[in-house]
Design brief:
mainly alpha
Length: 131
Amino acid sequence: MKRFSIVYNLPMAARLLTLMALPFTLQSCYYDVEEELYQNVPCVTGNVTFSQHIQPIFQRNCVVCHTGAAGNGGVDLASYAGASVVAKNGRLVGAVSHVSGFTPMPQGASKLPECTINQIKAWVEAGAPNN
């Protein structure tokens, strides 16, 4: 008569535990693309304002590096005064659109979503108003 032993059944227990844990492990891995997740959300490009649309974009993506007079590249996106300078001289749209001849921004990160770029363009095309 064989005696039941944990040591004898360890390989089977390990296999069973692995099979039970596998679904949880696979569910925890996923990849989301913002444009795919929110593809039905309309992109607001009409009546884009600095305070409601542009400043929050800069806060999320730019001001870590571009704040004050000592901002990287001499660019200050923490204030309207600084943002309007690069908006009106073309550097802002060129950088966020990754146009050849401009340093692509945000540097070291993915290109901004097209909707965000279109909002920045709409604000600049409207004369970059302080609204």
